[in-house]
Hints:
- This protein is mostly helical.
- The protein is built from 6 helices and 2 strands, in the order αααααββα.
- α1 packs antiparallel against α2 and α1 crosses α3.
- It is elongated.
- The C terminus is likely disordered.
Amino acid sequence: MPESKSSxxxxxxxxxxxQALELRKAGVTFEQIAVSVGxxxxxxxxxxxxxxxxxxxxxxxxELRTLDAERLDALEFAxxxxxxxxxxxxxxxxxxxxxxxxxxxxxxxSVPTVIQVDGNVNVAVSHREAMVNTVATLAAxxxxxxxxxxxxxxxx
Length: 156
């Protein structure tokens, strides 16, 4: 016989899900959530947050996605100029932010990107390589313009 929705164990599980979701909305990592709420692992915390998100109406989930996308925008903006200046660590950070945004928004591409070289040779490169090329092109363009381009293409 299935356990009642009002059983003490299920009520406690729902409360832990709620706590985990609130912490995640506040920007807390899954590892920190696991410790704070008492999950066995960060994966268990992640699973709990996913279940909590599945239980809520889609509008709040979309709002959380929007909030996370805005956080990623702010993080990208914070390192953008340094990346364009050629700092390899900052470039890597921008690429990781772009990858996270793609995952968050369901835009992740797992197939190679085909680029054209010298007008007639097609070369398959990974999505990451294509992003590196894009950042390098923007950095070169910004250097030629004498200004530093922002993520939206404006110089400042």
